[in-house]
Automatic annotation (TrEMBL):
It comes from Cichorium intybus (Chicory). This is Uncharacterized protein.
Length: 475
């Protein structure tokens, strides 16, 4: 029986390995992590991440050919294929701080694999890493010259949180990069291809050299984020001119050369990947003597930051230029619907912006725990052009706990609120009883829709003053 071990039981490692276990009953899959609480949760009824369909997949395989464990070394030693799916956040200090990927977790995983291995292994980069990382990993794996063969493959993950299981079941493509120039490399590529071939059609499995696979992942995320920043930049122009961004993006997306996906204007993109991967790309360009290319991609993040600031400024200026002491209902905190993940969610910057003008926030999100929100709102954030006194100023821990209340439904959040601010496109926000909500708010009652989920016309009829991203303003 082929044995797979995945180091890192996070948003990627957990779901990807659960799907491999489901689709390949002849393969034994161990998912290992240094976090005791995460592994305990994977082995419990309440999984550590919310992802539609994930519970079902895990229940079907757990204890049969899918295992979650803190015994990292033992499971790595026994595996034929070791996936490494550890986090690769942006470096916060030292060389490349604020841009380069922090590969500390990757390096320690690679050193451990080298130390505990007694048999040959295929080591798979599942994490998103800078192009050329495999070169450094090869050196680490072979440094102690044990005579064991390590083949390194790049197999970046393209799943999107919120649709991870559907994406894994039916991927647009699976990308496998390896040392195509060697027999060992070709054999390793085939071994991994055979795993995916259990359910992915051959023509969707793309095999490339290592550097193409590593760079393709960074490039794909940069392109996706670029589309969002492009439509968001147009949304600002829509508001200034009376054009409607929904109509514009529909018309633009109907061009088959452009396509309709990822063209929804919003308060900004979030999630653990887009910003970090573009910063990483920027850093790699700079290191390779390509400052103009670096500046091009940097602009995608600058527009994203601008969009969040623009939203906060619009909200404050609409409410007589101050939200001091006013109650603002925040609907949605996760970075997108159908996930509880709050990493880099625009809600953090928007809430901090409102708190810096001394607003009182009442927050509701169907999947994010109160402790997580409080932690997110207390932590400082890297902001490359933050100005003292700007809306991105970071509030202190004390002001957060005094000014933020977390509640369990949208009606509780909006009761007595001066304004409603929608920051995540959860389906339930489309169909709230907005008449009832309006009746329970002081007047004038405002709605600031950062995700274009509400029916603007209907809400205006009820009496709300509505600002929706990229839509013509209230008459
Ligand atoms: P995560 O933080 O949810 O999970 C990483 C896990 O690795 C953590 O549980 C951590 O405890 C564990 N870990 C770190 N070092 C370890 C070690 N030495 N031994 C054992 N466990 C260790 O991160 P994630 O969201 O799953 O992302 C993982 C990688 O996949 C990142 O590089 C990310 O860029 C990439 N990626 C993420 C997504 C996404 O949507 N989240 C999508 C595609 C790719």
């Amino acid at each position: 029986m082929v044995k797979i071990c995945c180091i890192g039981a996070g948003y990627v490692g957990g779901p990807t390995m659960a799907v491999i276990a489901l689709k390949c009953p002849s393969i034994e899959v161990a998912v290992v992590d240094i976090s005791v609480s995460r592994i305990r949760a994977w082995n419990s009824e309440k999984l550590p991440i919310y992802e539609p369909g994930l519970d079902d997949v895990v229940k079907k395989c757990r204890g049969k050919n899918l295992f979650f464990s803190n015994e990292v070394e033992k499971n790595v030693a026994q595996a034929d294929i070791v996936f490494v799916s550890v986090n690769t956040p942006t470096k916060t200090s030292g060389l490349g701080a604020g841009k380069a990927a922090d590969l500390t977790y990757w390096e320690s995983a690679a050193r451990m694999i080298a130390d505990v291995s007694k048999s040959s292994k295929i080591v798979v980069e599942k994490s998103t890493v800078p192009v050329k990382t495999a070169e450094a990993i090869e050196k680490i794996l072979t440094h102690n010259n044990k005579g064991i063969e390590f083949q390194i493959l790049s197999n970046p993950e393209f799943l999107a949180e919120g649709t991870a299981i559907a994406d894994l079941f039916d991927p647009d493509r699976v990308l496998i990069g390896g040392r195509e120039e060697t027999q060992g490399g070709l054999k390793a590529i085939k071994t991994l291809k055979d795993v995916y071939a259990h359910w992915v059609p051959q023509e969707r499995i793309i095999c490339t050299n290592l550097w193409s696979a590593e760079l393709s992942k960074l490039a794909a995320n940069a392109f996706l984020a670029q589309r969002i920043s492009s439509v968001n930049s147009i949304s600002a122009l829509c508001e200034a001119t009376g054009a409607n961004v929904t109509q514009v993006s529909y018309s633009v997306g109907k061009d088959s050369r452009i396509g309709p996906k990822f063209l929804s204007a919003s308060v900004g993109f979030g999630g653990s990947c887009f910003q970090k991967d573009i910063l990483n790309l920027v850093y790699i360009c700079e290191c390779n003597g390509l400052p103009e290319v670096a500046n091009y991609w940097k602009q995608v993040i600058k527009i994203n930051d601008y969009q969040k600031k623009r939203f906060v400024n619009r909200l404050v200026s609409s409410m007589f230029n101050t939200v001091s002491g006013k109650k603002i209902a925040i609907l949605g905190f996760s970075f997108k619907k159908d996930t509880g993940d709050t990493r880099e969610t625009p809600a953090i910057d928007v809430c901090k912006g409102l708190l810096s003008d001394r607003a009182h926030l009442i927050i509701y999100d169907p999947q994010v725990a109160e402790a997580q929100m409080m932690m997110d709102l207390s932590l400082p954030k890297f902001d490359w052009d933050s100005q003292p006194g700007s809306p991105m100023q970071i509030p202190t821990d004390e002001s957060v706990s005094q000014s933020v209340k977390v509640v369990h439904n949208a009606y509780e959040a909006t009761k007595d609120a001066h304004a409603i601010c929608i920051l995540t496109e959860w389906d339930e926000f489309k169909n709230l009883d907005y008449k009832k909500i309006y009746d329970n708010m002081p007047k004038p009652a405002y709605v600031f829709d950062g995700r274009n989920v509400v029916d603007v016309g209907k809400l205006r009829q009820i009496g709300f003053i509505v600002y929706a991203i990229g839509k013509p303003l209230d008459p």
